[in-house]
Amino acid sequence: MLKSFSANSRIQRRPWFYPLISAVVALSVLGTAIPGQAFSWTDLLTQGVQLVQLSTMSTQQEVDMGKQINQKLVNGQIKLYKNSAINQYVEEVGKRLALNSDRPNLPYTFQIVDDSAVNAFATTGGFVYVNKGLLKTAANEAELASVIGHEIGHIGGKHLMKQMRSTALANGVATVAGINRNQLVQLGMQLALNLPHSRKDEFEADQRGLRTLGRSGYSQSAMVSFMKKLLSQGSVPTFLSNHPATGDRIVALQKAIKPVANNIGYGVDELTYKARMAAL
Fold this sequence. Notes:
mainly alpha; about 280 residues; 14 helices; globular; three-stranded mixed sheet; about 5% strand; 3 strands
């Protein structure tokens, strides 16, 4: 006992010891998760600094990065749909959900992509994108809200930030001077457009979105009905082909919806929705 106490006393006189050993242990675990890639101790410690910077990014820094990613997207990667009435409607739905989300203080931005594919995605700092094709496919406002709520769930869980961090480590984006912001923005854009989220992230976004739907007064069953409808179509749409384990997700959502709330809620009027979307 006396010997152990003496050793701990020597460690306590070195304030740098615990942060150093924590970084080494954490990064050693991360490093072993990437097959066929070896890191020197210097590489691990150096990249650890950048990974910590990315994981501790402030809300304002996250929003600024979202703005930069959005600028790159609209300057060549996507074409935005310009109808003001429909944009205002989607923004109304989005804002209602955002106020009841896990991160209500973010300055959310909701935009429509002029694309007939059934798809939606989100980046960082509150930026949500919904394809025109998805607006046409949804039967009512609650089904549209279920998709937007799901994407807000990804933002609530900071899922893209986590993908950026792990991909930056795997691809060696981090340097001695720090993570290059332009490279990071480019990486975030590519991940948002092309890389599906993990099974865990999808389940989490579903559950976050379901809670947001309920708090916003929407019918929670709309999330299930929309997924089922898309799966019943001949070919799996982009929205679900990029989102794995859809059948399991439907089962999990059905279990999460309380029976008393299964058939109640706002936004199920199909005629009203079609009238709002007539310009499409």
